[in-house]
Amino acid sequence: MKDLFGKAILDFQTNTYPEDLVTATNISEADEMSVSYLFRSYDEMPKLEQKALQLCKGKILDVGCGAGSHSLYLQQKGFDVTPIDISENAVKACHLRGLTTARVQDLLAIENDSSESEQAKQKFDTILLLMNGTGIFGTLSETSKYLQKLKSLLHPNGHILIDSSDIIYMFDEEEDGSKWVPSDSYYGELTFTISYKNEIEDPFPWLYLDYNTLQNAAHANGLQCQLVVEGEHFDYLAKLYL
């Protein structure tokens, strides 16, 4: 991938003529987003994100940290936080913002050696996945793989804080009130494209999960699931725990 999302973040951090990102999906038109939004302060964050940060405890893993705004707030509050992202450019920006523990890391590639002591293993009290945290799952069929990995990184009394949206509202309604949705796949499975400075990223899968589907997937993978708060636009924050 060209890492255009990360490039936009790094351009903004270094004041290198940043431009708006343009995102589009297979069911929606192109939409412009100011990169500055990714650098928002706690007071500028949606209530749902603020609530997630309020619930953080102990040692924290921030998955898909992007520009690092959530991690920066937590670090300033004195938490031990590890921001990770697959974007090298985003992680460079995080380092420039003072997040020295940020690292380029694919969640699924985090390994704990079975021969290690429990103290030596990478375990966390809070695992944070925000800004449609279910997106990295890609498709519904991959969800269990990610939930099992998240579960393996959790301390016994820890929790996963994850948000998503039920995008059923984006589909046309039939006369009988039912929705016209794809018959061959889950309706929350989208294909995203990102454009930045006249470059186009390779399309990638991105998953929106309605709460009931997330809850069912959590239970199937040995996790409890609790609805914490609902946002103003079909979005929600959930807590998963052992």
Your description of this structure?
The chain is of the alpha/beta class. Helix content is 23%, strand content 29%. The protein has 6 helices and 12 strands. It has a 7-stranded mixed beta sheet with strand order 5-4-3-6-7-12-11, sandwiched between helices. Strands 1, 2, 8, 9 and 10 form a 5-stranded antiparallel beta sheet that branches. Helix 1 runs parallel beside helix 4.
What is the ordering of alpha helices and beta strands? HEEHEHEHEEHEEEEHEE
Report on the biggest sheet: 7 strands, mixed
Global outline: globular
Question: How far is the N terminus from the C terminus?
Answer: 35 Å
Strand content: 25-35%
Could you give the topology of this structure?
Elements: H1 4-13, E1 21-25, E2 28-33, H2 47-54, E3 59-63, H3 69-76, E4 80-85, H4 88-96, E5 103-104, E6 124-129, H5 143-152, E7 154-165, E8 189-196, E9 199-200, E10 204-207, H6 211-220, E11 224-230, E12 235-241
What is the compact description of this entry?
This protein is an alpha/beta fold.
Keywords:
seven-stranded mixed β-sheet; 242 residues; 6 helices
